[in-house]
Amino acid sequence: MFTEKLTSLSVIKNKSRLLLIFNYLLIFSLIFYIIVSSFISKTKIVYVNNSELFDGFVMTTELKRVGEKEFITRKTALDNLYSKIQSQSISASQKEALMAEFIKGKEELQQFNQAFASNESAKIWSRIHSYTEDFCKENNYQLILGSENKTNVLYADEKLTVTKELLTYINKRYEGLK
Fold it and tell me: Which stretches are annotated as coiled coil (predicted)?
């Protein structure tokens, strides 16, 4: 009976040792997995300066040039009309008709400016977003925050900005170089 107890105690000790070894291996494996996975799947979050990105985009410059050309054409026509209104050689009724035309032209110019700026900005941002998606995939970024002079971001380390890299990328894409 004493030998049976001794044998059963010895079996329990062996099982305890095996269980302890198994637990250590399990803990070690878990720690190893956490360390490896943190290095492999490190979240990459960066930010860009929206103003700098928008203003530096070649498409923005091109569309501004087109808009300015149209604006100058319309403004010149208004200026010519205003000069006619100021002329002493026209009658009061002609002056009144020209003044109505001038007011209408001025309102149309303001509407043109607002509509042009809004429509073109939407087109530009749409293009920037599509290029940025490709940029993220190529650089394994999971999130790019956009900020106007960091107003929406309380703090961002300057090392996290990719504004210049993204600007170079989108300009190359826009020009068909990438």
Answer: none
CATH of domain 45-78+107-174: 3.30.910.20
Query: How far out from the chain centre does Cα 99 lie?
Result: 46
**For residue 57, what are the contacts with CB-CB under 8 A and spacing of at least 6?**
124, 127, 128, 167, 170, 171, 174
Task: Give me the residue spans of the domains in the chain.
Answer: 1-42, 45-78+107-174
Give pLDDT tens digits for 86-123. 888 888 889 899 999 999 999 999 999 999 999 999 99
pTM of the model: 0.66
Distance CA 129, CA 133 (A): 6
Nearest one of 149, 139, 147 to 170, comparing CA atoms: 139
